[in-house]
Design brief:
The structure holds two protein chains of two kinds. Chain A is α+β, with helices and mostly antiparallel strands. Chain A is built from ten helices and 25 strands. In chain A, strand 10 and strand 11 form a beta hairpin. In chain A, helix 4 runs parallel beside helix 5. The longest helix of chain A is centred in the N-terminal third of the chain and has 15 residues. Chain A is globular and about 70 Å long. Chain B is of the alpha+beta class. Chain B is about 20% helix and about 40% strand. Chain B has ten helices and 24 strands. In chain B, strands 1, 2, 3, 4, 5, 6 and 7 form a seven-stranded mixed sheet that branches. The longest helix of chain B has 19 residues. The radius of gyration of chain B is 23 Å and the shape is globular. The N and C termini of chain B lie far apart (about 65 Å). Classes of the chains: A alpha+beta, B alpha+beta. Chains A and B meet through strand 1, strand 2, strand 3, helix 4 and strand 4 of A and strand 2, strand 3, helix 2, helix 3 and strand 15 of B.
Chain lengths: ~450, ~450
């Protein structure tokens, strides 16, 4: 049905002699909330709509509508185009498609059969099983599937289905002064998430927080879990690979192309063509066929990302990074499926000697991507000696500079897919645990 | 539409049902460095349905508004509730005696922003952007406008029939200056419930933009602070942010049930006796979190979260209020028709005290005066970290140098205990932002200036 609606809008654009593109989405999602050790409620969500862009006299107008109101959507976009600045983007023409795996029918079946509640219960039971004091206080399990369509008046018309399954749980040990809390999450496009393991890991983490350690302000290496380093990199480093930020001088990498910016073993890329990647898709939200963009290859700065608009401003080609939050938003330049690769060390090697293990950070959004400086509260965090957790560390601040850390960071082989929403930002990454050797610790 | 919703209440198999028809008109304009980057106008809406079946909740929504589509959505919600009920041990038993609300609520609006065309707004933003960039040291600027008109119909099994019209508007200005290759930004924003004249009642748009310019120019010459525990004087924006992020979330009853630090602390001393903290959906008609009635159809009444330093009351929805023996006071809110109502703050603030504003600084030998927030985050233990726009060093009772890139962190209740003076001024100052607990919500926060102890972080340089 959404394909038909996109076709109707395109036909109307063509009939009016207008140039433009149409983005259509139809999705269905069911989620189960966990509260106080049991499933508290279930929410079903269906979304369907079109985002329409009209290009007129070099200006872009954007409107959106639901199926059946295509003509109104086009007219609204046309009206608003008069108020926009002249940019003169060029819509992509038909190109050879790439094949990317994004849809697993087992996820769709699980949703329709309503077994999500059973999967959520598995997480709960596993967390309870670790220790009698644990309460799995909060969590969520969700299943979703949908269809994305992008077409334009130059003949592009692409359709693909995708699925997603994810779960998270926070395990708490209540206390008088401070409750101990730790969490675990897992996400995939395939029906391969181990919900029992998520519950067990959350339970293990919170139990290991019972003993408390203190540490003076120092320069002790910090090993950050995939979730915590992912969050830090997302706010403090990845924006520096955005072509618009580079052009506007908001990136630490302006004028650094081909320079050595990291260790030789380090690669950072945005690869939406990776099968089953959390942000993978064969085309972007502007109808550009997906390709992999390397930011850092063997330690050298190699490329930035661009959408159609920024490609014009920067006099280059789109890298297929036009991204929309929903059909209600016009596309903006954005990363799609970030992958960080390094030496693939065993996690035990990273934990040798005296290190701090960090599994969550607060304040990552205050990082300065123009300089790479960051200062975050680490919670939960543990003091680790030769691989053994000695106790949790409260009120720990970790500060440093991410571009500098790229030269000496050590990367483990425990690559994890992360799909995590914080505010309006959505992290879609595959990242391992990373040891930062040049950070400053302010402890209590 | 009301008749359709009422018919469906009768048809429901659930023990309780609430139906909410919600339409939204939204306009968003962004002007950056002389260019209109975004002009966005939209109308959308639908029906959100929440039902209680076999002691478990189910929620479903639809953008289709024919009666048969809404009926189908109601059946989906009932089906979802039955799935949830499968593994549920503690079932929702009911909510006790609830008083139905029958009424129409309208935001108090002086000169609706809908009276002004999109072209007028684009022209205003373009002019301000140009004026900002004409100022010394300013090399770029951004102006942003966002307006929302909401209309809701809420009906439920208790006989509640509510009609609500709400208008909220935000206006942001940001000026960028360059300092030895490092960019600094000065921002000034306003967010209210109301119209054009309400938005610019205190400061005209030009003055707001020039405040952003002045901040950027000042920060250009500023150094970074060295991190340490310090005496700090907070302005109303930061007082609002701490009230919301570090305390407010820990007293939301769903988080309390999940083991937040506030669990079991009712009637305990959690703050200096100078502190009375309140959440109130109708505290003033123009605060951005104005919510006269929530999405469960409960009228807003004042919650004294902390009364003279003692934790007094949590924020509830109907369900948890009945479990914990509290009173729902209008805090169950949903952002869009497709969101279920969850416990949210509205306007959260600390009551003013009797200290002079200037005395807070004059009496401080060494410390910081912190102004303006740059986003915040806190956890269930009330540990928080916020970015700060301007940090003035206080030495011997006087503001000396301005510092930039500062942050403030600490434990919410510990910081409240350290408060030794609360000024007699008051301002709501958080209305331009949103709370992001699972779904968005328009909230406000504020209070007086006050003095406390917290960790001031920075770039770790002298």
């Amino acid at each position: 049905m959404i394909e038909e609606s996109v076709k109707v809008a395109l036909e109307y654009l063509n009939k009016q002699g207008l140039e433009g593109d149409v983005f259509g989405i139809r999705s269905r999602n069911v989620s189960y909330s966990i509260m106080n050790g049991e499933i508290s409620d279930s929410t079903e969500y269906e979304d369907m709509g079109l985002g329409i862009r009209v290009l007129k006299d070099g200006r872009i107008g954007f409107g959106y509508c639901v199926p059946g109101k295509e003509e109104r959507g086009v007219k609204k976009a046309l009206e608003l185009s008069k108020l926009s600045k002249k940019i003169g983007i060029s819509l992509p023409g038909e190109r050879d498609a790439v094949t990317v795996k994004t849809f697993d029918p087992k996820v769709q079946d699980a949703l329709e059969e309503g077994i999500g509640a059973d999967l959520a219960q598995k997480m709960i039971d596993a967390a309870y099983s670790v220790d009698n004091d644990i309460i799995p206080t909060r969590g969520e399990m969700s299943l979703g599937y949908g269809t994305k369509v992008v077409g334009n008046t130059k003949g592009v018309f692409m359709v693909q289905d995708a699925t997603i399954i994810d779960g998270s749980i926070a395990a708490t040990i209540p206390g008088d002064k401070t409750s101990l809390m730790a969490g675990e999450a897992g996400s995939s496009r395939k029906y391969d998430v181990n919900f029992e393991e998520i519950g067990l890991k959350a339970g293990d983490k919170v139990v290991s927080m019972r003993d408390k350690e203190t540490i003076p302000s120092d320069n002790i290496p910090v090993v950050m879990s995939p979730e915590s380093i992912g969050l830090l990199l997302y706010f403090g480093l990845i924006p520096s690979f955005n072509g618009e930020n580079v052009r506007k001088g908001k990136s630490v990498y302006q004028g650094s192309m081909d320079d050595k910016v990291g260790a030789e073993y380090l690669s950072i890329l945005d690869d939406p063509t990776a099968d089953w990647g959390m942000g993978s898709f064969p085309f972007d939200d502007e109808g550009v066929v997906s390709s992999s963009t390397s930011f850092v290859s063997q330690g050298k700065l190699t490329n930035f990302i661009y959408d159609l608009k920024e490609a014009v401003n920067s006099d280059t080609e789109s890298t297929g990074n036009g991204v929309r939050g929903s059909f209600k938003s016009p596309p903006q330049i954005g990363d799609r499926n970030i992958i960080i690769r390094g030496e693939d060390l065993q996690i035990n090697n990273l934990m040798e000697g005296r290190v701090i293990l960090v599994d969550g950070v607060m304040g990552a959004h205050t990082s300065n991507p123009a300089s790479g400086d960051f200062s975050v509260v680490a919670n939960p965090a543990w003091l680790v000696e030769d691989g053994e957790k000695k106790g949790r560390l409260d009120g720990l601040m970790v500060s440093g500079n991410l571009p500098e850390s790229l030269h000496s960071m050590e990367l483990a082989d425990d690559h994890k897919k992360i799909f995590y929403a914080i505010g309006s930002a959505v992290l879609k990454m595959e990242v391992p645990s990373i040891k930062l050797n040049d950070v400053t610790i302010s402890g209590k | 539409m009301k008749d359709i919703l009422l018919r469906l209440v009768e048809k429901s198999d659930g023990d309780y049902i609430e139906l909410r028809y919600h339409t939204r008109d939204q306009k968003r304009i962004e002007v950056v460095k002389g260019d209109t980057e975004e002009v966005h106008s939209s109308t959308y809406g639908g029906v959100g349905i929440r039902v209680l079946v076999d002691g478990a909740w189910g929620f479903s929504s639809t953008s289709r508004t024919r009666e048969e589509d809404i009926l189908k959505t109601m059946k989906s919600a009932e089906c979802a509730a039955r799935f949830s009920a499968k593994g549920k041990k503690e079932r929702v038993e009911g909510f006790g005696e609830m008083t139905p609300v029958d009424g129409t609520f309208k935001a108090r609006v002086n000169d609706s922003v809908t009276n002004h065309s999109i072209e007028d707004k684009v022209n205003l933003l373009t002019r301000l952007d140009k004026d900002m960039r004409a100022c010394s040291d300013i090399n770029s600027a951004k102006c942003l406008w966002n307006e929302i008109q909401d209309d809701k119909l809420i009906v439920n099994s208790f006989g509640t029939e509510v009609s609500l019209h709400d208008e909220k508007v935000e206006f942001h200005t940001i000026a960028y200056a360059d300092s030895n290759g490092e960019k600094v930004a000065g921002s000034e924003s306003r967010g209210i419930t109301g119209g054009w004249k309400d938005l610019f009642a205190i400061d005209p748009a030009e003055d707001i933009a020039q405040k952003a310019v002045k901040t950027a120019q000042q920060l250009l010459k500023a150094k970074h602070p060295k991190g340490d525990i310090a005496t700090v004087v907070l302005n109303p924006e930061l007082v609002g942010l701490i009230s919301h992020e570090a305390i407010g979330h820990t007293v939301e009853a769903d988080f309390v049930q999940s083991g937040s630090i506030a669990q079991g602390k009712i009637n305990e001393k959690v703050a200096s006796e100078l502190v009375t903290m309140v959440d109130h959906g109708t505290a003033t008609p123009h605060a951005a979190g104005w919510t006269p009635v929530d999405d469960e159809g409960i009228l807003s009444t004042r919650t004294e979260i902390i009364k003279e330093g003692v934790l007094n009351e949590y924020l509830y929805n109907m369900e948890i209020a009945s479990v914990l023996g509290g009173k729902p006071r209008g805090n169950a809110r949903a952002y869009e028709y497709s969101d279920p109502p969850i416990i949210r703050m509205t306007n959260t603030f600390i009551e003013p005290g009797d200290h002079g504003v200037d005395e807070l600084i004059e009496e401080t030998k060494e410390g910081f005066y912190l102004e303006g927030a740059k986003g915040g985050q806190a956890d269930a233990n009330g540990e928080f970290m916020f970015g700060v726009q301007k940090a003035w060093r206080i030495k011997d009772g006087e503001l000396t140098e301005l510092l930039r890139g500062a942050s403030i962190s600490g434990s919410g209740f510990e910081v409240l205990k350290s408060i030794d003076a609360v000024a007699d001024n008051f301002e709501f100052k958080m209305g331009a932002g949103y709370c992001g607990k699972f779904q968005r919500a328009k909230v406000d926060g504020g209070g007086p200036n006050l003095r406390c102890t917290a960790t001031v972080g920075g770039k770790q340089e002298g």
